[in-house]
Write a structure and sequence with these properties.
This protein has 161 residues and is mostly helical. Helix content is 78%, strand content 0%. The chain contains eight helices and no strands. It has helices at 4-9, 11-30, 35-38, 41-54, 59-81, 87-101, 105-128, 141-160. The longest helix is centred in the last third of the chain and has 24 residues, at 105-128. The N and C termini lie close together (7 Å).
């Protein structure tokens, strides 16, 4: 059974789950992830994680979450500079990382990595079937949100065991 600090730290994950469908629909239609849905993750996560620490969670969890989230953001900025990634994707990856890395930094990195592998695999199949062109942009948000859901499920199942 998850502890009270762990339950409090899951609040930003609940927010992400609530906005996952609207974000997916918008990204599929418009190839953008609106700030009004993505950016609230940051204050929600930092507040919930701060409360979790006040309730007994380890300070190192927040430090690691911040460090991994900033590293993902910097890597994303570099990818954005080369037009490999949109800024909405950069912000969503950083938000997902901040939420997941509080529980496990590796889980967060694996979730983001899995999203890219999944998106790459889908693009390769589309290219092979002639349904996509090289250089065509793809909505990455749905892949990141799906990998977030899988990683979150893994984290919750592990903590319940």
């Amino acid at each position: 059974m998850p502890s009270l600090p762990q339950l409090v730290a899951l609040v930003p994950a609940l927010y992400l789950l609530l906005v996952a469908i609207p974000l997916t629909v918008i990204d599929l239609r418009e190839h953008r992830l609106p700030n009004r849905l993505v950016l609230p993750v940051f204050p929600i996560a930092l507040t919930a994680q701060g409360i979790a620490i006040a309730l007994g969670a380890d300070w190192a969890s927040l430090g690691l979450a911040l460090a991994v989230s900033v590293a993902i953001f910097i890597a994303g900025l570099l990818a954005n500079y080369f037009d490999w990634l949109g800024m909405g994707d950069v912000k969503l990856a950083s938000a997902i990382t901040l939420v997941l890395a509080f529980f496990s930094p590796w889980l967060a990195v694996l979730a983001i990595g899995f999203a890219f592998v999944l998106a790459f695999t889908v693009v390769v199949f589309k290219l092979a079937r002639g349904k996509a062109n090289l250089g065509q942009s793809i909505p990455l948000g749905p892949y990141m949100l799906l990998s977030f859901l899988i990683a979150l499920s893994q984290s919750v199942v592990t903590s319940l065991a």
